[in-house]
Amino acid sequence: MIVDEILKIEDLRTHFFTDEGIARAVDGVSLSVKKGRTLGLVGESGCGKSMTALSVLRLVPSPPGRIVGGRITLAGENVLSLPEIHMRSVRGKLASMIFQEPMTSLNPVFTVGNQVVEAVRIHTGAGRAEATRTAVEYLAKVGIPAAHERMSQYPHQLSGGMKQRVMIAMALCLRPALLIADEPTTALDVTIQAGILRLMKEMQAETGTAILLITHDLGVIAEMADEVAVMYAGKIVESGTSEVIFADFCHPYTEGLFKSLPGRTPRGRKLYTIAGTVPSALAFPDACRFHTRCPLAMELCRTKEPPLVDAGGGHRCACWVRCGGAA
Q1: d(CA 41, CA 50)
Q2: Pairing state of beta strands 227-232 and 77-78?
Q3: Is it the case that residue 187 has pLDDT exceeding 70?
Q4: Mean pLDDT of the chain
Q5: Residue ranges per structural domain of the chain
Q6: Which of 123, 134, 198, 314 could form a disulfide with 92 if both were Cys (CB 3.0 to 4.6 A apart)?
């Protein structure tokens, strides 16, 4: 399999300048996704996963947000140096995104068919008839019944799950080099979810699409991801192949995520939860950002930030206790 890097993020920093101070939503993230591969990005809400994805397409709300540092390379293009007018050709065809919130992602004054057809025509140059056939085909593929009839409906006439499937169809029908899927199956029942994941895999096998998959569902990660990056408080704290992360995770935060899975708790016992909350992006500590919640924390963890180091076999971890350097 060809393993060219489709997406490479280096030391990305996306900050929000607010009246309360500077919120470092993404604070030094580096990751890459190769052709035909899937990278799963996991972590609690508020850790910076979605903002990392929005930064790739330069969709960070501004003001108050701004990409203040780093480099994003997409299929060889330095995204951060492109004029805004050129980003139109990047968004959609080169990189498509399935947004987390389907309720606000579709334009309420146009039919769903119009919106999917327009995306196909703009990014592929297809005529209206061909674009309409493509739109109907993909609406059917994502499980929308009577797809041709649904083309004439407006977003308010569809359920949340149906809107989500329209967004998925719009992203997949463009057959992008990179697909960013931000919680793509959250609003869907398990049967439709399985079909969507299967469709994403089929497209990837056919076209070599690279996928950046953002989700809270470790079951989806286990099924879909080749590599996994665990994000906490604006940083990557552990990364590696899915086999390594699931069999030999290292960081205490990753351990907490796995212990929180319902299947890991004996019947009749209270579900495990990670104590405390993610620190505010306005005041990240100059130390391990997980130390206030970590049962293994020692004095070094409270005073110095651990680097993301090689733990062997491409496995990387940022933990003073478990990844060496504590002495």
Answers
A1: 9
A2: unpaired
A3: no
A4: 91
A5: 5-94+176-317
A6: 123
